[in-house]
Design goal:
This protein has strands at residues 2-13, 15-19, 26-31, 38-44, 50-51, 58-59, 61-63, 72-77, 89-91, 99-107, 110-114, 126-130, 135-139, 145-149, 154-168. By secondary structure, it is an all-beta fold. A hairpin with a 6-residue loop joins strand 5 (50-51) and strand 6. The protein is elongated, with a radius of gyration of 17 Å. The relative contact order is 0.31. GO terms for molecular function: zinc ion binding.
Length: 172
């Protein structure tokens, strides 16, 4: 089993916090770690629970690669001990720093790419709260985002968004 953690960093202007709903689906590219089969833009949805074949376990995404005997799976973790707690977010104090958002417990599958919460992926977006308290929902971070906060009378933006997966050794 490999535990990957998605880290995100961004430049925040007049933003108090970016929140990532626990129900947010992720669109990722995957690969068979022992073969050549790859699949792009598959949905790993924390609200979708699949029973694993020949097991009592469950996963948020399952796949059986051609030629493989066992089913491969991904479980989305909303908390990883010693890495991040539930309701992970990017607060203004973490402006410009990589922040852990979600964990992915991968068995028999490698995550090779991430769709970055684009509108075209069909998933909902994240929630951005301005310093003045205005809440902007379904924000997509695949490109720079700009808005105007009437309550605070100032522009609000999330720019220079970067993503990376890191292998973690911590348990659930």
């Amino acid at each position: 089993m490999v535990l990957l953690v998605l880290y995100i960093k961004a430049t925040l202007e007049n933003v108090r916090e970016i929140q990532f709903p626990l129900s947010l689906p992720f669109h990722v590219n995957i690969k068979d770690p022992v073969g050549f089969e790859e699949r792009e833009n598959v949905t790993v949805d924390p609200q979708n629970v699949n029973e694993l074949e020949n097991s009592r376990g469950e996963a948020h995404f399952t796949v059986k690669f051609e030629g493989q005997m066992k089913q491969s799976s991904i479980v989305v973790l909303d908390e990883v001990k010693n890495v991040f707690k539930k309701e992970a977010s990017i607060p203004e104090s973490e402006d410009g720093r990589f922040v852990p958002i979600r964990g992915f417990e991968c068995r028999g599958v490698d995550i090779t790419g991430f769709d970055k919460f684009s509108e075209s992926s069909g998933s909902g977006g994240v929630t951005v709260t301005s310093k003045a308290g205005t809440v902007f929902e379904d924000v997509h971070l695949d490109e720079d985002w700009y808005e105007y906060c009437e309550k605070g009378g100032e522009s609000v933006s999330v720019t220079d968004v970067e993503y990376e997966f890191r292998v973690e050794k911590s348990g659930k």
